[in-house]
């Protein structure tokens, strides 16, 4: 067993990564802790693994997520310290969103910095994650009253590289409406009138290139899609709308008429907007018959085969089952909304303005919870009325994917995002993305899918509501395949290869004299086994 995989928080994307690596890398061994009580995992998991990972001369490489304090583990287990150590960041605690600066626990970010110093290679799921971690280090350590460490970012940067979270995208062909199937077949959005590709301006209007020789977009829609979606609502039956229930407004748009035809504009179904974001946290609540019932349902869902293995499901069901995920406390736990980083207020304000203007649209909000729901959700659902198509948890992964495939536009209003699985999954299902021009989004989505202000978001949606056919003919220029497991598999295998030089040495060679001199000022880098 040459590769040792350690996961202190075995759930959601953390579990997905470890499982994929274990399935695809020969001679690997896995040691994990359940995805519950996150704060205690970050504080004490090194002690558990010290006692439960047996010594073995066959280990050559160790991979762990940044939840584990790697510095503690290798200090407690010198035999593991001799391995080539790889650290993977799904998120970083230096800038992880908190409501108030005073709420940030210094220890978690400090542990991650220590882990980086003893690691040979540090991997991040996005450039935003990596750069925000490294550039925030100096300000983060200003919390120390005196004798602060210096230039730690220089010591660590040479070890760092971006290795995107690998996604296994499901085949959603059976869920795609006719116009999306046609679009996939052609690989471009063609003008019904001229037969040439069309572009969508920043205001959502249609523009036809002057030259008929313009090339169609050849970028495939297929691609990676990280996973972090929806929530659940168990206080009511999940809403499932079948084709028979949709009525004439939800039928597929007609095919383009033959060239030269003078038929009038064909009626279009209203624009379908989807907001599929994980948005749950946890909070202490008193035990009640309702909470006990929720926990029973959660236990049942855990046992069901085929439960969607994404963060939002993991977080929600664990919270229902009585798990303390995000803050320390005792007693039963239930889910509450963590609204401070997804900004549902902006999303709903924008939709209500569309309604005030009398524009036609439908919305699916895939995320709700059980207790302490912010007023904005209750008010928005009431005020949006008949515009609501789906609201809450879908009963299965297939039902969730079917909603994404039926939608036209997927929106993020996030104030914070390290990767954006939900958005990529929606793009995989053929949705047109609209994302903030900030955070991780600019490194994944071209500029035409980004907005800088709430006003820009509103204008784009107004244009799409007036001409939903424009969106339906548009082939999204995002190659999600770049984030698929198939595309990233060889890079992961290379990083975890027991032969050859460590990734650290390769990164150091690129780093140059600045990184070398910084490392020389503080000898903290371990010697790996070659």
Can you characterise this structure?
There is one protein chain. The chain is α/β, with parallel strands linked by helices and 530 residues long. The chain has two domains: 3-166 and 486-520, Rossmann fold (3-Layer(aba) Sandwich); 173-240 and 267-279 and 340-483, Rossmann fold. 37% of the residues lie in helices and 13% in strands. The protein has helices at 12-24, 38-52, 70-76, 78-81, 106-118, 127-140, 152-157, 178-186, 243-246, 289-303, 311-320, 344-356, 375-384, 397-406, 421-428, 454-466, 468-473, 485-495, 503-511, 513-520; strands at residues 3-10, 28-34, 61-65, 84-89, 121-124, 160-162, 199-200, 206-207, 271-275, 280-284, 333-337, 361-365, 388-391, 409-411, 432-436, 450-451. The strands form four sheets. A six-stranded parallel beta sheet has the order 2-1-3-4-5-6, with helices on both faces. Mean pLDDT is 76; it is low at 188-198, 202-262, 279-340, 500-508 and 510-530. This is tRNA-queuosine alpha-mannosyltransferase. Belongs to the glycosyltransferase group 1 family. Glycosyltransferase 4 subfamily. Residues 186-273, 506-530 are annotated as: Disordered. Pfam families: Glycos_transf_1, QTMAN_N.
């Amino acid at each position: 067993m040459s590769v040792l995989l350690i996961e202190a928080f075995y759930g959601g994307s953390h579990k997905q990564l470890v499982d994929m690596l274990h399935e695809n890398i020969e001679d690997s061994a896995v040691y994990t802790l359940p995805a519950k009580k996150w704060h205690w995992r970050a504080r004490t998991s090194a002690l558990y693994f010290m006692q439960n990972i047996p010594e073995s001369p066959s280990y050559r490489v160790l991979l762990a997520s940044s939840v584990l304090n790697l510095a503690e583990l290798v200090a407690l287990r010198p035999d593991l310290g001799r391995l080539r150590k790889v650290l993977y960041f799904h998120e970083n605690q230096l800038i992880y969103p908190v409501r108030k600066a005073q709420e940030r626990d210094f220890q978690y970010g400090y542990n991650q910095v220590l882990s980086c110093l003893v690691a040979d290679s540090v991997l991040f799921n996005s450039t935003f994650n990596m750069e925000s971690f490294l550039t925030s280090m100096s300000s983060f350590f200003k919390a120390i009253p005196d004798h602060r460490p210096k230039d730690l970012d220089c010591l660590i940067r040479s070890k760092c590289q971006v290795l995107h979270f690998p996604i296994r995208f499901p085949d959603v062909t059976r869920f795609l409406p006719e116009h999306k199937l046609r679009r996939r077949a052609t690989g471009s959005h063609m003008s019904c009138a001229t037969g040439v590709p069309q572009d969508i301006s920043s205001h959502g209007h249609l523009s036809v290139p002057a030259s008929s020789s313009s090339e169609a977009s050849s970028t495939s829609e297929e691609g990676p899609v990280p996973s972090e979606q929806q929530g659940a609502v168990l206080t009511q039956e999940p809403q499932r709308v079948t084709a028979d229930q949709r009525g004439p407004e939800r039928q597929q748009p007609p095919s383009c008429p033959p060239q030269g035809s003078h038929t009038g504009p064909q009626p279009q179904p209203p624009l379908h907007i989807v907001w599929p974001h994980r948005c749950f946290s946890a909070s202490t609540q008193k035990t009640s018959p309702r909470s006990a019932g929720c926990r029973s349902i959660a236990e049942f869902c855990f046992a069901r085969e085929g439960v969607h293995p994404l963060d939002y499901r993991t977080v929600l069901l664990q919270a229902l089952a009585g798990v303390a995920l995000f803050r320390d406390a005792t007693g039963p736990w239930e889910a509450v909304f963590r609204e401070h980083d997804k900004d549902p207020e902006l999303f709903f304000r924008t939709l209500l303005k569309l309604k005030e203007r009398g524009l036609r649209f439908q919305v699916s909000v895939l995320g709700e919870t059980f207790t302490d729901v912010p007023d904005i959700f209750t008010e928005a659902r009431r005020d949006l009325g008949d515009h609501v198509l789906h609201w809450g948890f879908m009963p299965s992964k297939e039902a969730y994917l079917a909603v994404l495939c039926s939608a036209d536009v997927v929106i993020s209003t996030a104030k914070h995002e390290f990767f954006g699985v939900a958005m990529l999954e929606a793009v995989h299902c053929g949705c047109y993305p609209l994302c903030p021009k900030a955070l991780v989004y600019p490194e994944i989505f071209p500029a035409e899918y980004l907005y800088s202000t709430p006003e820009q978001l509103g204008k784009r949606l107004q244009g799409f509501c007036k001409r939903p056919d424009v969106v339906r003919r548009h082939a999204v220029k995002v190659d999600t395949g770049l984030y698929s497991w198939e595309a990233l598999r060889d890079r992961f295998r290379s990083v975890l290869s027991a032969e050859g030089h460590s990734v650290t040495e390769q990164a150091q060679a690129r780093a140059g004299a600045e990184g070398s001199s910084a490392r020389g000022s503080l000898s903290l880098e371990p010697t790996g086994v070659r």
